[in-house]
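job 3f2a | input accepted
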Amino acid sequence: MNIATESYNNIRKAQNALCDEYGIDDGFDLSDYDPVYNSLEVIKTENKVIVGFLTYDQDPSHYFDDDEGAGEFKEFRNAEDRDSEVLNLSKTKKLFYLVSRHKHGNVHYSVSGTNSYGNDKFDVAHGCGLYIPDPYIQSEYRKMKKTDGEGSAYEHFIKHANSTLDSYSDWCNGEVYTYNVIVFDTKGNQRDIQQCSNFIGNEYAEKEKNSVMKGIVISEEINELMKNVVINQLDLKNIDLPFKLPKKGLKEVHLAHVYDTYVVGAKYEGEDNTFVYKWSDGDKKPIKAQFGEWQKRYGVSSEQFMKVRMESDVKEVLRKNLKDNTDLNKQLSI
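job 3f2a | predicted structure (334 res):
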């Protein structure tokens, strides 16, 4: 499979370069987007041009209000209100941390006393907030407090608190992203688009963007490879498999052998008595899938189940092989 990758820091340059390369005057329209600098990457296959980039999320979810696992954060304008809240929390025996805010252009929050900031005297509001971890951490804190003592438990979860506050700081600074993956044909026509928002910090958004782009390439290659996969119906008198297939009532056997894996469809006497087995080198026994009542309720026949399940299992084998393919991974090194 011939694959080429490119990176661009300007969306107009990318659009013009692609039009020139494919000999068209107009196409690969990206004019509606304003990508984050240096996030635009292109993968070119024989049939597709896959363009991926990040944009800033213009309407992100509120960090603490919309994420139950984030916990709770309270910021105060004066020490009186803060001290009153500290007193109330102390009575509940909950785990909580005093939080400081560093503001010099961007803002950064951390558990008080755990970070050293420059211009501490002027740029840091010490103890301006309180962070209360979510119920799961509270439960783990109570368990550890019983076994290791309150001080050790308090110290143990500071890393978790600071990690959450790091993410909240990114959210406050507008570091929330949407990944965009747009698929064009070689004539510059848009064929598909995948987007997902609310990624805090560009590291996670970049990782997901690249994963989606590579996934599209791999799916295209799988579809090509599937054209060469043959599923044969075996002679019941001459079945040669590396695992024992139940013979009683056996009516049909279908086989696809891909790399080191056997995918076998077996139909037995009796209504809808159909199975698909998957066995790979080193397995003690095959993985077995059975046609079930829920499939019948959705109008799927046992024949359809066998066909679709066998194809799905073969694609899974091909996908694993492609993901392990060193040469392909080098070509997809974006």
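job 3f2a | Residues 232-326 form one domain.
job 3f2a | closed
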